Structure formats: C-alpha cells, structure tokens
Amino acid sequence: MGWYEEPKAHSKKDLQDIVVDSFGNNFLAKSQIKDDHFWILYNNKGIINATCYLINADNNEFSYKPIDIEAGPNYCDIPKTWVNKITDVEDRNLKYPKMFKSWLNKARHHNKMKIRRYDDFATNNYSEYTGKISNMKHLIATDPHYGSDVWCRYEKKFDKPINLDVDLIIQNQDYYEVYNDYALNMDGVSFTLLLRNADLPMIDKTLRLKEDKGIIYSKLYEITKTDIGMDTAQVALGINDKAKEISDYYKDYNNDSLDLDGYRPYFSIETLTDGLFGDVKEYTYQGNLGGIIITGWVDGDTDYDEEKLVNYLKDRLEIQDLEKIYNSYEHFKNMSKEEDLNV
Questions:
Q1: Whether residue 67 is found in the same domain as residue 187
Q2: DSSP for 144-189, written as a single string
Q3: Longest dimension (CA), the chain
Q4: Which band of pLDDT confidence, cut at 50, 70 and 90, is reported for residue 20?
Q5: What is the rounded end-to-end Cα distance, in angstroms, of the chain?
Q6: CA-based torsion, 68, 71, 76, 81: positive or negative
C-alpha cells in the first residue's frame, strides 16, 4: 500500500486532524503523535478497532499509511486504556464470521509480523517453576550421536559436586510468522532453564531470569556460550549417571554394538528437525561457576507439550521439589476487570 498524500497537511498535527475527520461519527479516540506514527480508535459496524498511521514527511508536506491492528503494525505502544475496549478476535468471529475469515486469510499471507490465534493468552502463555538439584558432577546437552569432537555439543565434568537452585520458564507458542509471503506455523514449546550455584551465594543472587526469558546477571560474570546442534533430529540432556548414559550411547553406537533400532534412544527428544536446538551459557566468576542457563525449543508437531517437556527435564536433570509457581494464562483469567493489563 502506498502513501496517502494530504497537500493541506503541513504538520503532523494537521495530518492527524485530517485523518480524525475522515472517520466522522465512527471516531472514538486518538493517541499522542509519536515520532513517525499515531493511533486512532474507532467503531466499525459494532467492532471496536485501532489503526496505526505511519507518517511520512516530504518538503513540509505530510502523508500517511494506515496499518490495521490485524495486519500486525510495527509498533506495540497502543494506549493502555484502549486495550479493554478493542473487540477481541473471538467476539469478532462471532459477530462477523465471514469478515473474520477473510481478514485472517489475508493476514496470514501478507502480514510481516506475528498473527495471534483466537485466544492469545491460552495459546501463547508461559509458566514459571522452581526446584533444586543436589550433587551435580556431570552435565551433557547434545545430539546423542555427537562425540566430544563436535563443536555444537555441551559436556562438563565438575571438580566437585555442585548444589543448584533451579528456575525454569516454559513458553507455549502458537502463532504464525510470515516469511516471503508464506505463513509459517510457529507453534511449539520453548524453555529457559537456570541452574544457579547454591554454594556461591554472594554472586549468584544477581543471576536470575525475567518473565520474557531475559536474563539479569552481574557484569562480574564471564560468559561462555555453546550452541546445541542436531544432525539426527534428536537431542538429549542429563546429569551424573544420565549424562554418562548419553556418553556411553555414542561410544556403543559408533562401535556397532547397537542395531538400527537403537538409532533413537529412549532418553532423547525427537525434534523432527535438524539445526539448532538452543544453547548453553556458563556464567563464571573468578573461576567459580555461578550458574548455567540452557535454552531449547521443540516443534508443536512433536508429542511434547509443557507437561511432557517439564517431566523430561525433571527426570533427566534430577530436579527435586519442582513446583509451578506461576502461569500467565491462569493469572490473566483471575485478574479483575479493573486491573491494568500492563501491555
């Protein structure tokens, strides 16, 4: 879509006023003008919607380009007070199913951002867990067919057993991402796992996870990153005896002591794809391990959901007292209508 020129608009405010007037009685509200865009809230046949207007300036003449919220605007700074007013996608579908189907099909093929499905919080939510690990001496995260000479494989044996506090974030994902005009289904489960050294209390408290899977850590830490790759659409994690099991499997398989049926060991996650599974980052301070963060993603076409992935990590990493302490969808459902959604 090209730029709509308004010869009478010689300022951003003039341009916004012209756009507001074009809505007539359907106009509800306007946002403050940002550097290169502003928002309009309006009523269209009983559906409350918002549109982002991009601003283009050329020799003191201003033009605009509207981008509907369904098409995935480049900005997420819609006024907070509008959030509860906008008709959600489920209600849109109930009121105008044909219209909804039309824009959804169009958006899936032309949107350059993420397309949310019917219930965003139900299908795109995260959970937080806590737990602990006792006496970790050996840790592996790898395609089970990789040996120690492969660069995208993590293995560590520790000089003495380490006790760890565990923080785990599981992200349930279900959206479409458009690439070269193709709508790609990006549903799956990702995780960020923090193993924090409980025996190094002074510095380790600065190492923690944020709800958006970001990481807070001290600048005193030295960070070493190892990618976890896959060539056989499998990945395996384990500590202590279960780490040795992975290491022994590689030796046995490459010594022809396993038949073809043993190509997919029971302790591996079948990812259905090769490439990069995630990574492992070590945080060290003056030669002491402050913590380890492991990340990974499993495609939704596998049989892994949140529960199965959590149980796998609990078993293979011998996590004790694992407890779910938060789920964003449950929190959203329990919020009162008066609460600020903080989006």
A1: no
A2: TT--TT-TT-EEEEEEEEEEEEEEEEEEEE-EEEEETTEEEE--EE
A3: 81
A4: very high
A5: 28
A6: positive
Query: Within a domain: residue 338?
Result: no
Q: How far apart are CA 340 and CA 333, in angstroms?
A: 13
Does residue 288 form part of some domain? yes
For residue 200, give both structure tokens.
Answer: 């190094």
DSSP states of 260-321 as a string? GGGGS-TTSEE-S--EEEEEEEEEEETTEEEEEEEEEEEETTSS--HHHHHHHHHHHTT-EE
Residue 340 lies in a domain: no
Q: Looking at the structure, do residues 81 and 181 belong to the same domain, yes or no?
A: no
Distance of CA 234 to the CA centre of its chain: 21
Which among 157, 306, 281 is positioned nearest to 223, based on CA atoms? 281
Residue type at 47?
A: I
Structural contact between residues 111 and 71, judged by C-beta atoms closer than 8 angstroms: yes
Same domain, 166 and 94: no
Residue 195 has pLDDT above 60, yes or no: yes
Do 321 and 259 lie in one domain? The reply is yes
Same domain for 289 and 213 = yes
Does residue 156 share a domain with residue 223? Answer: yes
The secondary structure element, H or E, covering residue 72 is: none
The neighbouring-strand residues paired with 172 are 125, 189
Length of the chain: 343
For residue 81, the 8-state DSSP code is: G
Quick check: 174 and 124 in contact, CB under 8 A?
Answer: yes
The label of the residue with tokens 């994902």 reads 173
CA–CA–CA angle 35, 40, 41 (5° rounding): 145
In the numeric block, the tokens 């046995």 are attached to 252
Distance CA 278, CA 227 (A): 6
The whole domain housing 271 covers 124-331
Average pLDDT over residues 179-186: 54
Give 206-227 pLDDT, tens digit per residue.
677 765 556 777 788 899 999 9
pTM for this model (two decimals): 0.61
Residue 341 and residue 84 in contact, taking contact as beta carbons nearer than 8 Å = yes
